[in-house]
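Annotated sample (chain length 431).
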Amino acid sequence: MFFEREKGGDRAVLVHLDMQEEADREDSQEFQELVRSAGGEAVALIQGSRSQPSPKYFIGEGKLEEVRQAVREQEADLVLFNHSLKPSQERNLEQALQCRVLDRTGLILDIFAQRARTYEGKLQVELAQLEFMSTRLVRGWTHLERQKGGIGLRGPGETQLETDRRLLRARISGIHRRLKKVRTQRENSRRARLQAEIPSVSLVGYTNAGKSTLFNRLTESGVYAADQLFATLDPTLRRIDVGDVGPVILADTVGFIRHLPHKLVEAFQATLQEASEATLLLHVVDAASQEREDNIFQVQEVLDEIHAGEVPALLVFNKLDLLEQEPRIDRDEEGRPIQVWLSAQTGAGTDLLLQAIDELLVPRLVEGELCLAPEATRLRAKLFDRGGVLQEHYDEAGNCHLQLRLPEKDFNQLLSSLDIGADELDWSTKP
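Output written by the structure step:
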C-alpha cells in the first residue's frame, strides 16, 4: 500500500447506535459478522440510540466515556463504528480515545483488501482505499502536531501534507490508467461472447447467501467458499451447458451489503458490469435468514445503482436444507419460472434451477410441419444447414414434409435471405 498506518492488534470495541431514521439504521449482528470476517476479536459491544449523530464525536459525551472505559478495561487496540463517520469525527474520536478508530466503510475496505486475489481486484481495492484515505490523510501525520509554529517551525507540516496529497493523486491517476486497460480487455471478452451469441448468467445476492457454493455445484469447480461475509471478491467465469440453450457463461460476483460504500461501487464498476450486461441474473437469497426480505430489497437497490435493475432475474432461495422443505419451482400466471427453492450445500434442487434457466433462456421456437413444393430445394437445404429439421417425408405428389424445430430468429433470417414471405409458407401443422 502507498500509505501504511501503524500496526495494531485485533482486539476491538464495537459501537452500534440505533438511529431514528430507517435509512440510517444498521444491523448489529451483521456488524459483528463483518468484524469476524475481517479477523477481529470483538471484546465489547457498546450500544445506544440517538435521533441524530453528534457533529463532534457521532456519539454523545456519556457514550464516549463508556467507550473510553471499555477500551481501557479490555486493553483494546481499535474502536469500530457500525456507521459512516466524517473524517473530523474520526480524528476527534482518536484524540479522545487514544486508539485507532475505524468506521463501517473502512472495515469493509479492509475485508476487501484481504480477499482480493487477482490483479484487477487488487487494483480496484487499492483505488477505493486511496480515495477513501485521501480525506483522512492528516491522521497519518500526528508526529507534526508538535510543530505549533514560531521561529524556524512554520510550514513543514503543511508542506509534508501537500507533498503527500500530490503523491496520492498521482497514485490514484496511475491506478485509473491501469484499470482502464483491464476494463478494455474485459469489454473485448464480453463483445466476443455477444458475437458468439453465448448467453451470460450472473450470480448476484447479499453477501454470504451461498453464491459461491452454488457456483461450485453448477460448474464442478473449486472457487473459494466460506461461511463469512465477502468470501468471494474477484469475479469468476465458467462455461456450462444448459439443456436446449447450449453453452452458457456463468459468473460468480462479489456479494452486496446494505449501504455498500459508493467508492467500492465506483471502483468495482468493471466487475459489476458482468451483472449489468448479463442475459439473466440469478438473485441468490439466504432462505433461512430472518432478514430475507430486507436483504432482497438491499440487493435490488445496488442493482439499480449499477444499472442492472432492468435485467431479467430469477430468485433463487438457497439453504433450503436449514428449513427442511422440498425443492420446487414457483411460476407466474404465464407458467414462467420466477423462483427456485434449493440447497446448494446438498445439491437438492439444482436440477430444477437448470431447468428454470433453460426455460428462461431458450429462444422462441418455430415448431411444426412445413410442406414444401418439389422446386423449393434452396429453402429445404437451408433448413437442414441450420439443423432445424427433425424429420422428413414425401407425399404422393412429391411434396416434402419437414418437421421443424429451430429458433424463431434464425427462421426469420433464413426467410429474409431467400426473400420469402411468412404468408407464402404452407404448414401442414401450424407452429
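Annotation: Confidence is low (pLDDT under 50) at residues 1-9, 139-157.
Annotation: The two ends are 63 Å apart (CA to CA).
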